Amino acid sequence: MMDSEDLVLNKSKTDQIGHRIVNVSSGKHYVCGYCAAVTNVAVTFPVQKVLFRQQLYGVRTRDAVRQLQKDGLRNLYRGVLPPLMQKSTTLAIMFGLYEDLSSVLLRHMSAPEILTRSLAAVLAGTTEAVLTPFERVQTLLQDYKHHDKFTNTFQAFRVLREHGAREYYRGLVPILLRNGPSNALFFGLRGPIKQCLPEATTYSTHLINDFICGGLLGAMLGFLFFPMNVVKARMQSQIGGEFQSFPKVFMKIWLERDRKLTHLFRGAHLNYHRSLISWGIINATYEFLLKLL
Length: 293
What we know:
The chain has 293 residues and is mainly α. The chain has 13 helices and no strands. The radius of gyration is 20 Å and the shape is globular. The two termini are 24 Å apart.
C-alpha cells in the first residue's frame, strides 16, 4: 500500500505538464484565487505604497520611504480597501474564469491547445478590467496630494461620481494592454517553469516549487509591463479634465524623465522584489488551497 508521500509523488508527476487538468469544480478556483489575493494584499501593501510613489513621481526608493514615514503609521494602510476588494475579485476572476473559459473553448474549438488556453487567459484578463474603478480609487488614496480631499474609499467614489461614470475608468487602456498579455504569459509559462524545478515529493516541496514558479513569473511580468503601470498611475492621479490618450501621457512622462529608459523604470527593482514575493504567495496559496479543498 502506498503511503501519503507516494501519493504526493504520483500526483506531482501528473502535474508536470504544460497545462493542468484539476478534477475539482470550477467554483473552487474562484474561492482559492480570492483567498490567495487577500493573503497577498495583507502582506505586501506597504511595499506597494512605496512602489506607487516611485511610479507616480519618479523619486528614489529612500525618498518614497521618507514620504510614508512622514505620513505616519496610521496612514500606512490608507487605501487598502480598494486593492483588497479589487485584487481579491480580480484574482478570483483570473483563476476561475480562465479555467471555465479553457474548458469551454477546448470543447468547442479545433485550434491548438496552447492558442485556445492563451485566448482564455486574454479574455479573463480583459474581463478583469471591469474592476478598474477600484484601481482608480486606490491611486487617488495613495497619492499624498489628495490626502486632504478624501478620508476614505467611499468618499473617493462619491467625488468621482460627480464627474460622471467615465471618470471611474480613467486609465483603462494601459490596464487592458497589461492584463490580457500578462495573463497569457502567466498561465502559458507556469507549467514549463515548474517542470524545470526539482521534482516535488512532499507537500512542503510542492509549496516551495509553487512559490518559486509564481514568484519568478510575477517578477518577470511585473518588470516587462512596468511602463504600463507608470502611465496608468499618471492617468489615474488626475481628477476631472481632459481624457488624454495613452501615447500622449507616455510621451509626456518620457520627456519629463529626460528621455532615459532608466528613469522610466524607476521603482522597477522594488516592483521586481515585490512581485517576486507577491506572486509567490499568490501561486503557492492558490495551489495549496486547491489541494486542500
